[in-house]
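note to self — DONT lose this again. spent like an hour looking for the file last time. sequence + predicted structure for the chain T wanted, 300 res
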Amino acid sequence: MQRVAAELGYVPSSAAAGLATGRQRAVGVVLPVIDRWFYVRALGGIDAELRRAGHDLVLYNLGGPLGDRDRAFRRSMLRHRVDALVLLSLVLDETERDELQGSNHPMIVIGGPAPGLRNVGVDDLRVAGLAVGHLLGLGHRRIAYVGGQDESGMNVAVPYLRRDGFLATMHAAGCSVPPGWLVDGRFSFAGGCAAGSALLAVPRPHRPTAVFCASDEMALGVLVAAARLGVHVPGELSVIGIDGHEYGEVVGLTTVVQDPEAQGRTAALAVLAEVDGHAPVPVPPAPATLLVRATTAAPR
């Protein structure tokens, strides 16, 4: 019978199988937007593990701040049957949390803690400390921070924790941070370029000697701003980011590397285990390592 089915190209109906088993063999993945490097890499890891387990990936793209979140959380998500949910870097209000928890799906968040849910991600305080500690170790004391909020709806805890890690490490070293050196880069390349231009537009004695960016995309923007203004990196300015973006390797960006694809795999395996009846277990922080390249050096 199986041979005949294969010859006829028969594919079992997942809907019919769901009626028989109570499982849909599908996992929903919810993300703020679909065009960011971190999200794309994490999706790749989730999809790889789901395909290995014979599950489909059902994508819910919220479309940024102007998207129809009501459709996703209150109607569409709960009408389309899935076995579990993976949330990528989302800011959830109380009503949305209630809707999700009322669905009784196994759930996990990638990239930033969310109240009441397990989280897969790096220790953001620690990675900020690694980055700033590297600059301090080189002798920098005049260090600026480029961070701010992601306008596409990213988890607010991530930029706040990285900023707090920056400030705590600076204060522990006895270094002050002028208010104008905490700059909003909107967690984007364009935002980083604008932030770098603002920091470097002042006369040289009043500039920072180093900039810590809370993402590689912003750090790449700062590098472009420095090149446009004729500021030599790393001779006049050291720049460091967080993430491990592949473009950073091309330009020699010093960064703290994380692996969003591995985080996606970890999240998928965690919810699949719950679907199979296993109790949820805590997920340890994802690894992150300092990678020194060509954009950081001792100050003149």
